[in-house]
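Sequence, please.
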């Protein structure tokens, strides 16, 4: 039988505990060394290099002339999909759009700081964004909706999708249908490091974009690191990861069912069950092999790799404090709370990309149809980054206006600070020189 890690947190040495916090993208140097020539080639040779690496890595017959999806591709995609799948895309799109429309901030606001002094914010969309949609371990039209719809709602006018083609050289049909549902027409056969380089530097077919968002493999994450001086690479979103926390009021079999959700994304995923109940832990351990019988061989192999490595398994905590100390240190992409009273744990949670409360809120629903984006910070970055949202596609400019009558109350304090910091021109600009020039 495949190994499933089972440990008590109290028994782990500091080094062993630290090992459980590591992700596949924790050390990107080996990936960076290998993707650097790819990035450099695309920067230098554009479409020719992009098509070359697409043929090499994706085994897809793509030429510089066939990089962009055509209107005929969109039409063929719609015809090839079942009405059930098209309805699911429409259902998910509606919820995702509704959530992000509610999330939109005011376009402009101002407040009176003191009499005669107004300050505020003005919000505008960023000029352009490329949405990365992975395909290496499956097809993900949900990632199209979760990245493109917030951008559309935010008002970004230039949006494209970059995604690896299949072995037939075509873009996944559901990806094209989801793009159409989101309102995006520019879709390119450009995956991996070569796709990231294409939108960072531009090619003959693909424009240079201001930002790139979306989840990807360590190869994609490494490419983003290399081009970060040329394009905003957004929320760090690497291989999937989850922590399922279950207390004694929940079911170990249910915890096992949900633990497999993110683990099946790939062998580089992370997935831990953290529980304060020995019974829950043992029931989950027994249930996982049963659930494998209802999964395909590829997905079983992925989860077995995860549960047998330091990136996954079952961890038993002595109490809530120990459990959530580990959870907050890990800062998971997905955190699911299985309990009859899940809300009582909210106060203990500091770091998580998303928090799913209760037994009726599995990651499956959040990944596809609830509404918030499933593009979430991975690799522990949930400590400082947030879930992808309309805010990722907006920029704020501060606005201020000082009435002439209010100016004298501010100027002396500003001059004092400017003199202390050694800025002569700053200070001179708020002295009697200004008074004379303003006609006071």
């Amino acid at each position: 039988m495949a190994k499933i890690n089972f440990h008590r947190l109290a028994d782990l040495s500091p080094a062993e505990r630290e090992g459980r916090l590591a992700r596949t993208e924790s050390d990107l140097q080996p990936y960076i060394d290998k993707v650097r020539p790819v990035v450099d080639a695309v920067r230098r040779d554009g479409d020719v290099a992009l098509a070359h690496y697409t043929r090499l890595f994706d085994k897809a017959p793509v030429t510089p002339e066939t990089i962009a999806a055509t209107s005929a591709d969109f039409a063929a995609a719609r015809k090839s999909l079942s009405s059930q799948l098209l309805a699911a895309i429409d259902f998910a799109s509606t919820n995702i759009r509704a959530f992000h429309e509610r999330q939109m901030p005011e376009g402009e606001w101002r407040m009176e700081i003191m009499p005669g002094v107004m300050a505020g914010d003005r919000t505008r969309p960023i000029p352009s964004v490329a949405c990365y949609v992975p395909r290496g371990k499956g097809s993900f039209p949900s990632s199209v909706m979760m990245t493109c719809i917030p951008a559309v709602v935010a008002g970004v006018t230039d949006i494209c999708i970059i995604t690896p083609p299949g072995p037939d050289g075509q873009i996944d049909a559901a990806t094209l249908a989801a793009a159409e549902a989101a309102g995006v027409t520019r879709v390119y056969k450009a995956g991996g490091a070569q796709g990231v380089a294409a939108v960072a530097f531009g090619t003959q077919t693909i424009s240079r974009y201001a930002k790139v968002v979306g989840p990807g493999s360590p190869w994609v994450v490494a490419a983003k690191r290399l081009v970060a001086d040329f394009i905003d690479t957004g929320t760090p979103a690497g291989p999937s990861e989850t922590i399922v926390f279950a207390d004694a009021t929940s079911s170990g079999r249910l915890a096992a069912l949900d633990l497999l959700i993110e683990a099946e994304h790939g062998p580089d995923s992370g997935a831990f069950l953290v529980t304060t109940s020995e019974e829950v832990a043992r029931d989950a351990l027994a249930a996982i092999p049963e659930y494998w019988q209802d999964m395909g061989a590829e997905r079983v192999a992925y989860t077995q790799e995860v549960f047998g490595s330091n990136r996954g398994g079952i961890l038993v905590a002595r109490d809530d404090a120990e459990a959530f100390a580990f959870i907050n240190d890990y800062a998971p992409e997905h955190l699911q709370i299985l309990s009859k009273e899940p809300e009582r744990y909210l106060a203990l949670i500091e770091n998580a990309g998303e928090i799913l409360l209760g037994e009726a809120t599995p990651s499956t629903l959040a990944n596809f149809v609830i509404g918030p984006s499933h593009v979430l910070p991975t690799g522990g970055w949930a400590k400082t980054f947030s879930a992808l949202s309309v805010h990722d596609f907006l920029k704020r400019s501060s606005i201020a206006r000082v009435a002439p009558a209010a100016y004298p109350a501010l100027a002396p304090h500003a001059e004092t600070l400017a003199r202390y910091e050694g800025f002569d021109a700053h200070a001179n600009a708020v002295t009697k020189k200004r008074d004379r020039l303003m006609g006071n």
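The mean pLDDT is 95.
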